[in-house]
Every structure is written in C-alpha cells, then in structure tokens.
C-alpha cells in the first residue's frame, strides 16, 4: 500500500482521482473519465483471518471471494456476498446487499487513504450508513476493512450455492449489464414498478430492459452509454407519472458525455 500512497501524492492536486473495482455497478459515459483512475481489482487483494471470527479484507478482493473464504474458515454472515459481482471496496462504498443483509452489518472498522497519502483507521461511527448509501470523511477512499463474523451454525458453502442458484434463476446473469439499475423504494420493488409501467423488453438503441428481471438493462446490440442513460431517464419519468414514486438509480453514472478527452 505504500506504493499506492506514493502514487496518490504524485497526482497533481487539480486532477480528479476515480477508484474503480470490477465496474459491476458503474456506467461510464461515452466520453470516458477525466483524471487518474485507480483500479483496485488485482492490486489490493489480501484477505486473511485475524482471529477465530475476524477477517481482514482489502478493497480489491472480490465480494464472492470474501464469501468463499469465510465459509472455508467456518464462519457465517458473509454468504450473501457470494452473489455480489464486484470488489469489496465497491461493496463498502455503496453498502451493497442482497437477501436482507448489507455489507456494513459485518464491518468492525475500515482503513482509508486520503489525497495527502495518509492512512486512517475509521470506526463505523465515522459514517452515516443507509440503504445503498455511505457518507463519511471527504476525499478518503476505502482500502481495507475488518469484518466481524460468527461461527458457522449451518453449512455456509451450501447456503452460498443456494443463494447463487436463486440469483441465476431470477436475474439475467451472464448478459452484459451494469447490474441493478434502481434502488428498491421503501416497501416495494423497482422491478415491479418498471414492469407495471410496461417497460419490460423496451429498448433505446442497443439497450433493452431485461425480459427476465425488469431492474436490469441489457446491452443487446452495441449499446452506447448514452442509450442506457436515456433509457434510465425515460423509465424514471414513466414510473413517476404512473405511480408517483421517484426511482433512485443504484448504478453509478460517471464520466463525460462528450467524446473529447483532453
């Protein structure tokens, strides 16, 4: 991590820094990203047991690997991570969750790196945690976390497989998408609202709402990021007009609309 801190110090102060894991819930606009992009996948890749129930996980480790490592260690609580296709840093940043469990329910503390190349050990109380939302100290990025799990009381490996089967049965796994598009509104499901508004299978350019799960947009035919973003905006307007509910995107839309990058 010392190399990473040194690199951060070498990035000119006005230049933006963007951290990217596996990009599973990211839509990069067609103009790309200005500034320095730090790819954590394959870089911050250490995971280890600190004691019988505590894990240390760096931000570039895939969420699925965290689930498998915990299961092999005889621990439970992280099984839901097996179905989240991204890095653990991304899971921390958005409080990723599935099947009623969220990432920050496991977190004991996090390690961060700031723009001055300094590392910090942060506690949960330093952050405001909500559904798919994490707010904390500005200009700091997650580089690792300490997780508190529980001794296994059921077959965690079997539970992971069951959750993965459920995901494969219900979601368009294996097709190009940027993951779940919208957050579920309180007491309802984004997919239900989108389907009720008649958007299942509807396309804009090469981007189409999945026939299998309406909260996924599939790149069926060389879709541009603009196609996907336009479809997202049209769905938001339609659902708002039909139900009065304002859908909030879960996918993070980043980068420049223009194709010119200087």
TrEMBL record:
Catalytic activity, EC: 1.3.1.98
Subcellular location: Cytoplasm
Location of the FAD-binding PCMH-type domain: 1-152
InterPro entries registered for this protein in UniProt: FAD-bd_PCMH, FAD-bd_PCMH-like_sf, FAD-bd_PCMH_sub1, FAD-bd_PCMH_sub2, MurB, MurB_C, MurB_C_sf, Oxid_FAD_bind_N
Required co-factors: FAD
One Gene Ontology cellular component: cytosol
PROSITE patterns assigned: FAD_PCMH
Gene assigned in the entry: murB
Reactions the enzyme catalyzes: UDP-N-acetyl-alpha-D-muramate + NADP(+) = UDP-N-acetyl-3-O-(1-carboxyvinyl)-alpha-D-glucosamine + NADPH + H(+)
Keywords: Cell cycle, Cell division, Cell shape, Cell wall biogenesis/degradation, Cytoplasm, FAD, Flavoprotein, NADP, Oxidoreductase, Peptidoglycan synthesis
Protein name, UniProt field: UDP-N-acetylenolpyruvoylglucosamine reductase
Organism: Candidatus Thiomargarita nelsonii
MF terms in GO: FAD binding; UDP-N-acetylmuramate dehydrogenase activity
Function: Cell wall formation.
Positions annotated as active site in the UniProt record: 132, 180 (proton donor), 250
Keyword Zinc among record annotations: no
Pathway in which this enzyme or protein is active: Cell wall biogenesis; peptidoglycan biosynthesis
Main location: cytoplasm
Family: Belongs to the MurB family.
Biological process (GO), any one: cell division
């Amino acid at each position: 991590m010392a190399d990473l801190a040194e690199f951060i110090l070498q990035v000119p102060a006005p230049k933006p820094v963007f951290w990217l894991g596996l990009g599973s819930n990211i839509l990069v606009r067609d103009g790309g990203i200005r500034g320095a992009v730090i790819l954590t996948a394959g870089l911050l890749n250490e995971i280890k047991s600190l004691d019988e129930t505590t894990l240390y996980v760096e931000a570039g480790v895939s969420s699925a690997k965290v689930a498998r490592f915990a299961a092999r260690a005889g621990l439970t609580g992280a099984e839901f991570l097996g179905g989240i296709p991204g890095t653990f840093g991304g899971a921390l940043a958005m409080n990723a969750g599935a099947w009623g469990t969220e990432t920050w329910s496991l977190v004991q503390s996090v390690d961060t790196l700031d723009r001055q190349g300094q590392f910090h050990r942060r506690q949960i109380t330093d952050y405001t945690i909500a559904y798919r939302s994490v707010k904390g100290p500005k200009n700091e990025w997650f580089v690792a976390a300490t997780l508190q799990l529980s001794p296994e009381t059921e077959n965690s490996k079997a539970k992971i497989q069951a959750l993965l089967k459920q995901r494969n049965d219900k979601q368009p796994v294996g097709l190009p998408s940027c993951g779940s598009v919208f957050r579920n509104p309180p007491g309802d499901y984004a997919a239900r609202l989108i389907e009720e508004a008649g958007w299942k299978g509807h396309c804009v350019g090469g981007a189409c709402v999945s026939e299998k799960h309406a909260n996924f947009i599939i790149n069926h035919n060389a879709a541009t990021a603009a196609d996907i973003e336009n479809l997202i905006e049209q769905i938001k307007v339609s659902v708002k007009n039909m139900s009065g509910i304002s859908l909030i995107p879960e996918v993070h839309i980043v980068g420049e609309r223009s194709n010119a990058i200087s």
